[in-house]
Amino acid sequence: MLEGLLPAHVVVAELFADPPTVELFPQEAELVAKAVDKRRREFATVRLCARTALAELGHAPGPILPTREGPAWAQRAPRWPDGVVGSMTHCDGYRAAAVASTSAIASVGVDAEPNAPVPDGVREMVTRPEERVTLDRLAASHPAVAWDRLLFSAKESVFKAWFPLTGRWLDFGDCVITPDPESGTFTGALQVPGPVVDGVRVDVFSGRWRTLEGENGGLVATGVVVGREGDGG
Predict the structure, then answer these.
(1) Exposed, middle or buried, 19 (CB in 10 Å: 0-12/13-18/19+)?
(2) Around Cβ 143, how many Cβ atoms within 10 Å?
(3) Angstrom distance (rounded) from CA 69 to CA 67
(4) Would you kindly state where each structural domain of the chain is located, as residue ranges?
(5) If I label 9, which of 3, 16, 109, 225 is the partner at 20 to 30 A Cα–Cα?
(6) Distance (Å, whole) CA 163 – CA 165
(7) DSSP for residue 116
(8) Which pLDDT belongs to residue 232?
């Protein structure tokens, strides 16, 4: 799904089902000790994906814990080993992680969602008026894609790439997503000052998207990579 969607410098590991058992480090197990079974399984499997990807970069297995720093909304961001940037995502039927060395990549964000319309009321909450015009046009020309869900996923990927570079919140209205249905790409034009990467301000994040056929419409995945020297594509 995400494999092949991101540049070669980014290592992806993904699973479409939870293994019967996944060993967690004690610090990780403590975080989900009181969680429901579904939450424990997705938490464990996505960390298995992350450790698999990190191993390809030469990192020994270790706990992947939240930062626990900053405001409440920021405290769930994963803390990666020194010299690594990464992103994790999970939804029903899919878990994945993407990691890269900071020598090649400044930041990465990935997200996966069911390829189904967002719940009632969410579209207005996560989109700007000009985006809704685009969504209506795409829904008419390419009805097989849940474009409102893809746009939501793209904003999630942009935020996951944005936050490690800025440490700041990015509201849904602070980024205008424009998908290209033919090339499988999208742009995220920031409506606030973008991060400065290697001395270059990044005001547009570029990404790629893909759908996968399956039950109930299948899945949609998005990915954003910010390269060195301010390359937002």
Answers:
(1) exposed
(2) 9
(3) 5
(4) 11-230
(5) 16
(6) 5
(7) S
(8) 62
Are 104 and 8 spatial neighbours (Cβ–Cβ below 8 Å)?
Answer: no
Token pair listed for 173: 């209205």
Contact 210, 221 (CB under 8 A): yes
With vertex at residue 41, the alpha carbon angle to CA 156 and CA 79, rounded to the nearest 5 degrees, is 50
Residue 165 burial (CB < 10 Å; 0-12/13-18/19+)? Answer: middle
Amino acid at 233: G
Phi, psi of 21 (to 5 degrees): -140, 145
pTM of this structure: 0.94
Rounded to 10 degrees, the C-alpha dihedral 67/166/53/26 comes to 0
Give Cα 114 distance to the centre of its chain. Answer: 14
pLDDT tens figures, 213-223: 988 789 999 99
List the CATH code of the domain at 11-230: 3.90.470.20
